[in-house]
Amino acid sequence: MITSSGSAPSPRRRSEKSRRATLTAALELCAENGYGKVTIEAIAARAGVSKKTIYRWWPTKGAVLLDAVTELVVSHSEFPDTGDIDVDLRTHIGMLVNLFNSTVMGPAYRGILSQVLHDEQLARAVNDELVIPRVALVYERMRGAQEQGQLPPDADLPLAVEMLYGPLYYRHALGRPMPDPEHVETLVAHVMRALRSPERS
Amino acid sequence: MITSSGSAPSPRRRSEKSRRATLTAALELCAENGYGKVTIEAIAARAGVSKKTIYRWWPTKGAVLLDAVTELVVSHSEFPDTGDIDVDLRTHIGMLVNLFNSTVMGPAYRGILSQVLHDEQLARAVNDELVIPRVALVYERMRGAQEQGQLPPDADLPLAVEMLYGPLYYRHALGRPMPDPEHVETLVAHVMRALRSPERS
């Protein structure tokens, strides 16, 4: 293979190309056959890389798919900031709905979550690599809203995130459909009311 | 076997005894070995019933364990009604925390939820036999609170239930520990504030 500059590709570039091919192959196979039928062998064959290469970077297929989902979630979604926290949280929760429902990422994310229940290492990775960094962006956006007076300074941000994300995971856990946009709007409005209304003593 | 009245046990009584022995054996094996290692064979052996008897009543081990958990949840928990809806919801959510954490029922319920992600029939059964009837009791209690003026007449009860249950299923899905009683109290207080505070137009 000849690169555009005419020189041979660098090892780093070759390695990045193998990495991307592996992530794409894993997502495709998961969408086509379901998480349970994905194997490292099949990923390697479709990506045109060796199994050894895959195992050098990832311990399990769950770890491959987690990286694939994480990259898509991060690259496809700049965290929204329109200046209206309610609107931005609706957009953000809508993206989580899309992650569950997506034909590309949904089977992978739902498969990862089924594996998390049996695999502590993957559970830690999902929290550390995907969920906690995303939640950090929610906190950052919410702190901005606090500075602008859209949320009270003492609002319980971790609880707010649990109340926003929780209903989606509840529905997922019980095999129920995700909420529609109108329902997401009502959910966000309720959580915002909970944060904004004064505590009864 | 001789019953206290001296007559032979009726088929109905024998059958009820086998049913109970099966449910107890299933819960014990799940707590001892984990959901993944429970088999119908092992349940039958411990309960002293035939595999055929078990398959006559239940299609899968998940269905056996669902019946076992449902009976314990129903029998162990009269729905609370102290007259204070906030207190009663705290108690109710505390019971759901206990279901996840219990050494007897926790492994069974968490195992059932892992199976639900792969088994639509079990997903329907969990909703129809356990979750929906429990939620109906929450609605009933909340409607009582509406009549007593503790909740507004137009409160969105289904959303309230999702906001209360959601954080527990979110934590479960990501392998995180259940909330402690103080956190449950804060959660209930927030949901109640969301329901009670007026909508901004």
UniProtKB/TrEMBL annotation, chains A, B:
The keyword Transferase does not apply. The keyword Chaperone does not apply. It holds the Pfam family TetR_C_11. Residues 16-76 form the HTH tetR-type domain. Residues 39-58 bind DNA. Keywords: DNA-binding, Transcription, Transcription regulation. It comes from the Bacteria. This is TetR family transcriptional regulator. It comes from Streptomyces xanthochromogenes. The lineage of its organism: Bacteria, Bacillati, Actinomycetota, Actinomycetes, Kitasatosporales.
